Amino acid sequence: MKIDFAALKFNVHGYINAIVQDAGTDEVLALAKMDGEALARTAENGSLWLYDPETKKAYNAAEDGAAFSVTEITAGKNGTVLLVKALPGRSGLGVFTQLVWKSGSLPVPEPDGIHGVLAEIYRLICYKRQHGGDNSAARHLVMSGQDKILKQLGADTSSTIIASKNDSRTEVLDEMSGLWYDCLVLLAYHNINPAELLATLGDKRAK
Question: How far apart are CA 53 and CA 180, in angstroms?
């Protein structure tokens, strides 16, 4: 596998957002981050490597309990997001996406569109909180307590404001995606699912 790094645009933090998709079913499995090293190592042996912004290091997804065999990596038109198609290992992500979600332990609706994306990410956060390994950034953030979550939320809010002041579409998208993720982590901390938030927003829209 050869990576065309010239076609990619890494953000100011040195990574690029990646959507991990099941190569067999096209099911979206995860929203992740990859830096240059993670991409290079993935291309080298076909095993999925990701980037942890907390430790600022690349790591094999198998270390987080989710082994993948990558079949294809494509970039969006502007080079700021990746679509990673991979086959999950028997004891990897394919297990938790099917078993955990079907167990009913995470009662989050699965509507289409943006609602579905929020539900998918929220489910991943809830799973990582309970079963994520030591390298799981989501588990580390949730288990660090409310103060740590709020600190991260404040930092990403400031970064989003700066990105907006810089009139940078790419930076706004990147920083705001991190901000939305932090908001979902905070919802998970309070055991509030996104459906409740969307219902509240709907009430405000009606006023």
Answer: 16
